[in-house]
Amino acid sequence: MTDCLIIGFNDANFDDYVEMVKSMGTDGGAYRDLRLAFVNYENKPVRSMDLLNRFYNPGESVPRRTFHNADFLWPVVTYLGSYLHSRGLTFDYVNLFHLEKEKLIEKLCADDILSIAITTTLYVTPQPILEIISTIRRYNTTAKIIVGGPYLANQHKMLDSLSLKRLFSYIGADFYVISSEGEAALANLINALKSQSSLDAVDNLAYKTGKKYVTTNLSTESNDLADNMVDYRLFSKADFGEFVTLRTAKSCPFTCAFCGFPERAGKYKYMSVDEVKRELDAIREIGGITTLTFIDDTFNVPKGRFKELLRLMIKEDYGFKWNCFYRCDFGDEEAIELMGKAGCEGVFLGVESGSDRLLQGMNKSARRHDYMKAVPLLKDAGISTYASLIIGFPGETLDTVQETIDFLEEAKPDFFRAQLWYADPITPVWNDRHKYGINGSAFSWSDASEGPAAPARTVFAGGSQAADGVVSFTR
Description:
By secondary structure, the chain is α/β, with parallel strands linked by helices. It folds into 3 domains: 1-223, no CATH class; 226-421, Alpha-Beta Horseshoe (pyruvate-formate lyase- activating enzyme); 431-475, no CATH class. Helices cover 37% and strands 20% of the residues. The protein has 18 helices and 20 strands. A 7-stranded mixed sheet has the order 4-1-5-6-7-8-9, sandwiched between helices. Strand 5 (113-118), helix 6 and strand 6 (144-147) form a beta-alpha-beta unit. Helix 13 runs parallel beside helix 14.
């Protein structure tokens, strides 16, 4: 029997997702933000990879190659699988549900499976989960379905008890792990299912008994990275392809006002250089890996550790190309030079705004001059730069937007994308919502003032301008 079948990611039908968001209103922030991610081609919403596939494989019934943004072994699969294996549990996996449905169906029909873990790393709606569960129920009625991960943890923090139970009922799983880290909860649940023992001793669970949902004791789960490293030997070389995604740290040491990640992820912790070396050595042993993506939110913090890592990568001559998140105010010319020599090919820069006033309001430690200095240095070192921007954060005006446009024209990052500010209740700025006069949440909000002495500001609603002193992104 397989103790746990792990399902990595489902890129649900994009046409259906666009129609769902569109139904909320084309002038709303959700649709306007999504509209930046696709073009209309032959009356259909098409993303960049979809367009590439169409013209790379013109008129071919069997594509030579399918391009997508998840062409790697999903890290939650490797971490969860390694964690379960180290605790004496057996596992199997389906990496990408939307591309491996036949493989999943074969496993559901042929294998004796105790439980199926559905991960939710990138989901913002329950639809991808519903599609997976529907397929499982159609072909297997005995395996227990467990849903956990960021989507569930976020919903648990944001929803009241009644709304959360309605969501559980709507999704229709057997068990829910409601911890920001859920490896231990998953392992303990599987052991309880195997021994048919009481679930009361398993923390951070929700499940239905009779007609009602019960929640077990809620506790803070924290799994040490160094003690729970991926065992790459457990996975086939073919499943890795050329790319590996890894992390050397958890959470983030900063408290940017627009970001709820530190609240969700807990205290910032990172692996030592020697521990990272063990992981890089193991990845080299796989063979054929060309590119690494470090998903640490602050890979170059602390600066001393980062430089030591870079010197290690140069000395060991791993030969990997790699990309990462990079904080410009925690770097310098030496670090950037080392990055180029160590194989860095691209960085994601959380610029957010070209206005120092907005950056201060966001509680960002970086300022415009940090970005203006770093972007040219990175490009000179052969490192591509991607600038991520937020438009509409409380305090935004046409003048501050123009400062951001001026920054883009002067610094010339290779790529950039602007996203509308999302009023997330699990962010520091939410605690100051009365100061800013914020009404509503998510993409449906209005920002009336910065306080009693706030200057009149401009309206942004569907790109229009008004003179009532309100910045508004409403459905």
